[in-house]
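Troubleshooting log. The previous run stalled partway through. Resubmitting the same two chains, unchanged.
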Amino acid sequence: MIQITGLSFKFAGTSTPALNDINLTIKNGDFVIITGPSGSGKSTLCLCMGGFIPHGYDGDFTGKVMINNKDTKEHDVFEVAREIGIVQQDPESQLCTLNVMDEVAFGPENFLLPEEEIAERINWALKVVGATHLRDREASTLSGGEKQRLAIASILALKPKIIILDEPTSQLDPKATAQIFSIIKNLQCQTNITIIVVEHKLYQILPLSSRVMVMDKGKIIIDSPSSELITYQGKLKELGVRLPFQRRKEKTSALNVYDDVETTLEVKNLFVRYPEGNTVLENVTFNVKKGEIVGLMGDNGSGKTTLLSSILGLNKPFSGCIILNGRDATKMSFKERSRQVGFIFQNPNHQIFEESVLKETMFAPVNFGENEKQSEEKALMLLSAFNLMPYKDRHPFGLSYGEKRRLNLASIFIYEPNLLLMDEPFVGQDFKNVQQLMSWTKGFVRQGKSAIMVIHDPEVAGMYCNRLIFLRKGKIIVDEPTERAFLKLAELGEKEYTPQIWSGKHDFLHDLQ
Amino acid sequence: MTSYMTYNNFKSAIHRLHPLTKLIFLIFYCVLVLVLSNPWFSLFLLFVIFMLIKLAKISIQFFLRKAKFILLFCLVLFVVQVLFTQEGKTLFSLIPSSMPVIGGALPITTVGIENGVVMATRFLSIIASSFLFISTTHPNTFAYALMQLGLPYRYGFTLITTLRFLPLFGSEFGVVRRAQAARGMKTSVHPKKIMRIIRLTFLPLLVSGLAKVDALSVSMEGRGFGAYKHRTFLRKIEFTKKDVVLCILIPVLTVVIIILAL
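Second attempt completed without errors. Output:
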């Protein structure tokens, strides 16, 4: 049982509390979902339940957290860890050994369990997550989904009474996501473990859960049985929490595109091979018209990022043709080409280099050798348009995720490229940030430009993309206007890539006719 | 990026030895190489290590290809020794004595050749033996073996997590460089700009590194890392009879050889 009374926490060096007077009780065997906007304190709450706060982080801690009658303040983290285990977002950084077996054994070994029991637990935990066949693999050879399953197994091997999964699927593709959710379902059926899941995507797990808590600004503002969540619809919409039963009428709100419009990009017969010889992209051909937002979908490893990199010219095509605004891109200098194409990387931190927000915005024009005075004027204009003016002289790394994304856009919009490429820009983001980023993107394509984005979330794709391109093992298997693309994907058995709110597929078919 | 010299997975008798046995061999072998200054001994020791590399199912050509620059350096060592050693019997002079003034300079002497051979083979032997150790001992096995022999497990896991995260940082480094290129930063390194490039690259890596460290420490502490002074090890690194014999034999043999040679 978890009992939290009057819990507040403020990280050292910050002015607003991350958690503000939290009171809650979670009974044994419950299945609780915690949701809410990014930065609302969900992960901080998890760290408090695991005892990492106050032990591992500096700050002001008040209140009381009791995990199965152990006060986290008076017990060491490892004492609390016997009761509660946390699976985190990033599958990469929570694995600490090199082999699957070593990883699952890691916890039980630290707790000095006898060898036979550790061996038994490894078998059991790997079986629960459906990873018995991975037992002898090296961790570095696993896919993201497999790594996350391993992370869950290595927590389960400790046989905790409570397991917290903090956005376990945010970095995974839809197929791996579905697998993780079915593992969670198995856990619920086969064990009496208490499950707490922090999640933005409610539609798959809401039916499993008994209770939903919604956080905002460090407080729990809604605490409701799952079946009654619908009564808070208005409030949730205000927060930007997407509900599974919310039907969106504004399906494709991007611009209508007509056939006679000019193209921004033509890709013809593109082949890309790795130096080792395996083909990543095979005979890829498609056009992107002015005013279009094209969604690029496919499993991780199907070649989406390679395709975007090839368009910009970061990796050389093995053969094929790329035409940007009517000109052969392979004959342009890289400088010329990079001025035409803006690239948003998956992790905003990987593309912020400078020491102030203003300098960061001016980074590209300075590199392109443009007039500094003019660039600065332009940068200031963009910063005020993106509501970043107050931070102009601050270090960018202090910004929130949403602000960093806006800064990424500003620092690309400043050199006015014609094509915007985005590689999974929404990883781990709440719906409000998604909406914000997309409204900027729509504004961008309205100026007669185009955007291609790698996207995993079918609902967001349905809302904003004119067209979807689906890659399977380096080949385009679907290239259709969004709604028709979903139909085709459903036919091809890629149901994880079609919107859940539309399934009840009859309904969806009806809508089309 | 191609790895320079790393573990390979051929399963040979040498691969199967306990890492400690191989470490002991490496240490005593290097001592021998450094102590003995007879060119014939040096060549013999080099021959021994080449045989062992062969026994480990690695082709000598593969090693020599990997060690191209080291071979070049050995050659330079040899040439320098031969040219600038004056002691010993002069075989001939590079500049014939019939030439006026500088005639007879740069004599090639027996001692010069001997020293050259010793220096060059010493260097090559040490590199080759290290290569043998690295390519037949998985660092993970090595770390677990040391921990089971009493190395505090905190140190052992420092090594293991480093091995786990190094490739990650490598690939993130690639992403950051690509992101810089995408916004027009020149990839060629101008000496004047190098500090700027380092700063602009280091910062994003540091930020994402710190986030990783946070997640890693939650993950490790949350699984009882550091709770007790000792821990169980499921992965057993076998110390066989062969290992016992070798661990005794190698030091004894080394001492005997040194006594005889001196």
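Takeaways: The radius of gyration of chain A is 24 Å. Residues 263-512 of chain A form a domain with the Rossmann fold fold (CATH 3.40.50.300).
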